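User: Second chain of the day. Same drill as before.
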Amino acid sequence: MGVLTNCSQCGGIFIKSGGRAVCQKCFQEEESQYQLVSAFLRKRQNRTATTYDLVQKTGVPERIIHQFIQQGRLLVSQFPNIDYPCLECGSPIHEGKLCTACAVELKKDLAQYEAEQQRQKERNAKEKNPTYRLNRD
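Assistant: Same format as last time:
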């Protein structure tokens, strides 16, 4: 059963069913924008286009192009000059979801968290096994 919600693009009310967060009108507009971008990139001479070129030649906003990439509808591996922002810092990248610097920082933070969890586990184990002393007075 659908849920009554607001469209994330135009703010209009619609019944949300499935994974779509936009109303039918915005969805159709998005689809026509995708068709423009897809048709532009299908031409051999346009396969080396940059993200800027896509925006200029098709009129599709950059955030929509990035959305198509995040949804997996545009495969940047086939178009080497198209970039999109890192999810953490926003710097342009060509693969993955994070730039190298953010990925290294995340790994460092995870290692630090795991080390802290291990220390906490060891502290808890020591508290569970207290030392008993006999008082022989």
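Residues 86-128 form one domain.

User: Great, on to the next one.
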